[in-house]
From TrEMBL, chains A, B:
UniProt organism field: Paraliobacillus ryukyuensis
Keywords: DNA-binding, Transcription, Transcription regulation
Protein's recorded name: HxlR family transcriptional regulator
Keyword Transcription: yes
InterPro entries found in the cross-reference section: HTH_HxlR, WH-like_DNA-bd_sf, WH_DNA-bd_sf
A single GO molecular function term of this UniProt record: DNA binding
Amino acid sequence: MEQLCPRFEKAMQLFGKRWVGLILYELLNDAKRFSEIEAALPISGRLLSERLKMLEQEGMVERKVYSEFPVRIEYVLTEKGAALQPAIQNIRQWSEHWITQEEVDETIANKE
Amino acid sequence: MEQLCPRFEKAMQLFGKRWVGLILYELLNDAKRFSEIEAALPISGRLLSERLKMLEQEGMVERKVYSEFPVRIEYVLTEKGAALQPAIQNIRQWSEHWITQEEVDETIANKE
DNA sequence: AAACTTAGTTACAAAAAGTAATTAAAGAAA
DNA sequence: TTTCTTTAATTACTTTTTGTAACTAAGTTT
């Protein structure tokens, strides 16, 4: 029986946390502020805050504070975070090939 | 503000479910039976059963029953499931570059 | 029939996530 | 100086998901 690589396991635990993939995706092209990410995704402020803190601790995201009015805080991918771009783009391509409109509709229907 | 693609969102919700990435990874090279996956990952039987059922419903995994003794049930990736191979391999490569041994140790330490 | 094997399921406790109201900080307006 | 805005969180509370461990089902062997 093959042994699971601990680095890969940790990466999967990270990436497999709810919202993490979508948050990283939002930051792929440009830095975003808290409220922008919150508006772009159906995530609550509580969890977004928690996830950004985690991603910062993991060294995947940097938090930048600009002392303007009103205060502007931007989240940017670090090199480590940006290195996930290929994986994220792969999933994006996969979803365009393999997720049908019907499946999307079903998922929405189940929510309501 | 850019609109999030619903197919991609659905894909990320799927992939972002705990254990899904690791289960798919286990099935990448060959079909496996329930007990093999259970032994390879620190997942409980309850969740493994739930996830396999979900992946089957999503058309990513096929459940094959062989009427031997003892009964042998194998889980195989469908074409749809196998199409995630590049994404999974990307995350694997990423983890080898970017997850340090120290990070792995910390994660283990926090568990205990 | 009693025991063994794999593949689950069930009942219950613990952890994570969802929701909505509240707070913090910091400069602007009065 | 007080009060008001604005963004960025945090807190209190409920619901959902996950973890744990014991139990069931179906078929086989003894």
